Amino acid sequence: MLERLFTRIGGTSRSVSRWLVGLMVIGFASLVLTGLSAAWLSARTQDHTSWINHTYEVELAISQANTLVEQAETTRRGYILSDQPTYLDIYRRTTAKLPAALQRIGDLTRDNPTQQANLRKMRALIDGLQAQRDRTNALVTAGQLDQARRAFITDTDARQMPAIRALTDEMRRVEERLLAIRDADQQASVQAFYLVLAIAGIILLLVAVASLVTILRYTRDLAASRDTLRDFADSLEELVKERTADLSRANEEIQRFAYIVSHDLRSPLVNVMGFTAELEAATTTIADLIERAEQACPDIVTQEARLAAREDLPEAIGFIRTSTQKMDRLINAILKLSREGRRLIAPEAIDMDALVSAIGETLQHAIKDRGARLVIESPLPDIVSDRLAIEQIFSNLIENAVKYLQPGRPGLVAVRGSRDGARVTYEIEDNGRGIDPRDHQRVFDLFRRSGNQDQPGEGIGLAHVRALAYRLGGIVDVQSDLGKGATFRLSLPARLADAPTR
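and the corresponding structure tokens:
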């Protein structure tokens, strides 16, 4: 029932998490959409403002040109009526400004074919008007006032000025129409933004409501589950104690069984080894008998008897002896593991630099034979743990590193460590032959080995290391590739419980 409860809580938590994540994604997408819309509207607004300013600049340029035309006409008439040179000077200054004003209109309306066409018409009208004005002004300057006045009356001036005024009005209307179109576009953009904003707001509101409902429902379910867990709390500790006691009893039974089995296996094995020795002695006697029989009466000794006495029997006995010796070593290993499981753990402060250095001194002969070096990257973090177990773990790991170095390459075994909170990690790294990644877990199994079996051993060491590491509250693993060395990583609590443990 408890397992089903945890399963239901876990399933509900995952469902709620997925649902809330989905709602957050939707809400975030809505915010992103709103932000993009705001950025788009801002760009549109800036563009619209720019065009409005452009329209006002065009209208101002048109008004300035029209004003110059009107001022030129006014000063021309004043000059005709008064014959005062001041009017002529003003007229000339005014007409000198007119080309620049027309050029300004042309620059501002370069992208507008309609306004460019209107501007060409205006230039033609102004050019014609300018020629008439210059002729009448020349007559006044020459003192022929009557002729200048008659020419002024008969000129087409009366028709050209209204045409110019009408053309400037048309050009202003063109700009006003463009401004109206741009205002309409801007209004449409604003409406679209408000629509997006409204949709995003509705989505965010729905997301908020759905999230609130989900959280309230999950909180209610969680409260119900907490009540159910509280019902189990009183009996859970007792249940754990009972299960722990059962496991301890089962572990002790397994250890006793391993001890009894290995002890009982040793008795017949001793008998087999004893009888093998007797058979070996008898084989020597039979071989001597065959040799004497060959000397006394060669005909009575067959080839089969000669091969059996001199080759088959010694070979078979050798196989039996090798097998019994291997079986004896395996039984000793099982007994060792069984005794280790029954030994009480005694935590004490351990100087790891000194411990590893002592192990290196005991292996110094093997290290020198292989032309290798043992490097201890001091200081190694000290721990409080069982000294005998730690010595056995590091002895096995360093001895294995030395044993499986790559021939023909200078060997290097490095020991380093670091502390992380309440745990310490030690690494034993070598540049040896390495371990196939497929065998990384297999090498920790009892009686299992990896690679070429050209070194003595029964596949006990790493299994013993893992068992000891587990007893000390730690774990051990390996990282390696073939031909690239191996790194065994041992993680242990920095301080083992002071009370003896089994």
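(Above: one complete record from the training split.) The two ends are 32 Å apart (CA to CA).
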